[in-house]
Amino acid sequence: MSTPVAFIIFNRPEPTARVFEAIRAAQPRQLFIIADGPRVGKVGEAERCAATRAAVAQVDWECEVHHNYSDANLGCRRRVSSGISWVFEHVEDAIILEDDCLPHPTFFAFCAEMLELYRHDQRVSSISGNNFQFGNQRTPYSYYFSRYTHIWGWATWRRAWAGFDPQLTLWPQVKASGVLKNLFAEPKLADFWGARFQSILEGRDTWDFQWQLHTWLQGGLNVLPNVNLVTNIGFGVDATHTHAINRLANIPLIALDFPLRHPPYLIRDALADQASDGIVYGYTHTPDRLRDKLRRLVG
Predict the structure, then answer these.
(1) Distance between CA 205 and CA 292 in Å, rounded?
(2) What's the CA gap between 128 and 11, in Å, rounded?
(3) pLDDT tens for residues 61-118?
(4) What values do phi and psi take at 285, rounded to 5?
(5) Which end of the chain is more exposed for a tag (fewer CB within 10 A), N or C?
(6) Within 13 A of 130's CA, how many CA atoms are on the CB side?
């Protein structure tokens, strides 16, 4: 496979080894491995980090391997963002997997084809392997467009990542301007996301909310497959964020049929996004005015 793969690892050798086997099966010609260092005072973490790095040490296919390993712990925000920026110092596009994101074999071919098809289309920010619609087929085509990035197995280009700011320094200006209220028809949904962006300035150690806002400010859409191509196998007590097991854990993988059926338009699927608001992010939509009026009339 000619498309580069970036693999982000930390301190979990078992899921890392499973995802690495999927990468090995795809045999990318370029592999970028990004690793964070152990946290100070975490007993046994240095050993787990070492075991995790050992799990990806045997690249036994023809491949140019690059390592970006940190001795000190940078945290999720700095390690992931700096690692991806490092990848794009070397290549124009990449498939990106974290240590708990197990892909179906067709995920790689899907990303490679989408990266090529939309390479120069500034309207498209990323490609995801995630489908959180739980069997609701939103389109007769192989994929649809969403405002949500969904980063449990994804791909993007240097041109889309350019200007990414993990510190979210633009947020105070964006907040004051009311930009989110232009993006969302529902003011409470704008407030919902605003609170998440505000949490970044208050110290939340993540990078994915920043990436989400970055794509919105660029007016970007994201390609999502019509079946689920990547499953998160990392839910549990040793996870960084996904501690409590819920319906998003271990979603079954489904093969994507080829040749792909391409939609003849580039318009986001509002119904699919509305479903994701609740399923993925836990937001409950307020009823529209007509339904609210009907409820009042019937008592």
Answers:
(1) 39
(2) 24
(3) 999 999 999 999 999 999 999 999 999 999 999 999 999 999 999 999 999 999 999 9
(4) -70, 140
(5) C
(6) 26
Q: For the chain, what is the total number of helices (H) and then of strands (E)?
A: 11, 10
Tokens of 297: 């009339």
Task: Report d(CA 220, CA 126) in Å as an integer.
Answer: 8
DSSP codes, 62-106: S-EEEEEE-SS--HHHHHHHHHHHHHTTT-SEEEEEETTEEEPHH
Rg of the chain over Cα atoms, rounded to whole angstroms, equals 20
Cα gap 272→254, rounded to integer Å: 18
| CA geometry: angle 222, 223, 225, nearest 5 deg | 140
Q: How far is Cα 64 from Cα 232, in angstroms, rounded to an integer?
A: 27
| Three-state secondary-structure class, residue 294 | helix
Find tokens 């050992």 and name the residue: 54
Domains by residue range for the chain, with CATH: 1-99 (3.40.50), 107-148+158-227+248-299 (no CATH)
Given a contact cutoff of 8 angstroms between Cβ atoms, the answer to whether 210 and 125 are in contact is no
Q: Work out whether strand 124-128 and strand 221-225 pair parallel, antiparallel, or are unpaired.
A: parallel
Instruction: Answer whether 0.70 is exceeded by the pTM.
Output: yes
Spatial distance between the Cα atoms of 87 and 278, rounded to a whole number of angstroms:
33
pLDDT at 296: 47
Q: What is the pLDDT of residue 291?
A: 43
Can you tell me the distance from the alpha carbon of 255 to that of 259, in angstroms, rounded to the nearest whole number? 12
Q: Which of 211, 238, 182 is nearest to 49 (CA)?
A: 238
pLDDT less than 70: residues of the chain: 236-245, 286-299
- State the Cα angle at 180 between 141 and 133, rounded to 5°: 30
In this structure, the number of other CB atoms found within 10 A of the CB of residue 141 comes to 14
Return the closest-CA partner of residue 100 out of 26, 212, 11: 11
